[in-house]
Design a protein that fits this description.
α3 packs across α4. 37% of the residues lie in helices and 20% in strands. It is globular and about 80 Å long. The strands form two sheets. It has a six-stranded antiparallel sheet with strand order 3-8-4-5-6-7. β6 and β7 form a beta hairpin. By secondary structure, it is of the alpha+beta class. It has a domain of 129 residues: Alpha-Beta Complex (endopeptidase fold (from Nostoc punctiforme)), CATH 3.90.1720. It is built from six helices and eight strands, in the order αααββααβββββαβ.
Length: 186
């Protein structure tokens, strides 16, 4: 055991001081690029046994693509699409296209899906707000499009009463004052 420790120390010191005492030989400029590329390729063995599941990312992209297909579609209370939507009709329609039953009203969607902290929100999560008619309860729902993890600000797509299906920011005055919470579907 002592010999191993001594050998390791000698090896470390000799390799550390070899560049100081020895002559440093740099490879040609082209060789540096080749070595650089080879180093990254050599780390493939670290992930050889892991399978990366991108199905969640693909599913979120599919849901958001479907949502964006309806930008500009008019708002109509109680409508479930595709020619007109109310807020919960829009979210339930978009998720149903990807075989998810999330509930039919914004209150049901809030109650049925998994609560998460605002700091954990991701693209594809449902975001909830109060509305003038709901008092302090849930009255409006949208789908998160993008999140800034440093500030917690987000953009969301929803069926707005005034402008139909559109994208808004969480910092917009109306929505920043009415935020209720976030729910995850999958």
């Amino acid at each position: 055991m002592k010999y191993r420790v001594v050998f390791c120390l000698i090896f470390l010191f000799s390799s550390a001081f070899s560049s100081v005492w020895g002559e440093k030989k740099l490879p040609p400029k082209d060789a540096e690029v080749a070595v650089y590329d080879e180093e990254f390729d050599n780390f493939d063995f670290l992930y050889a046994d892991e399978e990366f599941d991108l199905s969640g990312v693909d599913l979120v992209n599919q849901i958001l693509d479907e949502a964006y297909n309806h930008i500009g579609t008019r708002y109509r209370l109680g409508s479930k699409g595709p020619n007109a939507f109310d807020c919960s009709g829009f979210t339930s329609y978009v998720f149903r296209k990807s075989n998810f039953a999330i509930g039919s009203s914004s209150r049901e969607q809030y109650a049925k899906n998994t609560p998460i902290k605002p700091s954990e929100m991701q693209r594809g999560d449902l975001v909830f707000f109060t509305s003038p008619r709901s008092g302090h309860g849930v009255g409006h729902v949208g789908i998160i499009v993008d999140v800034d993890p440093t500030t917690g600000e987000f953009t969301f797509i929803h069926a707005s009463t005034a402008e139909g299906v559109r994208v808004n920011r969480s910092t917009d005055g109306y929505y920043s004052r009415r935020f209720v919470g976030v729910r995850r579907v999958f």
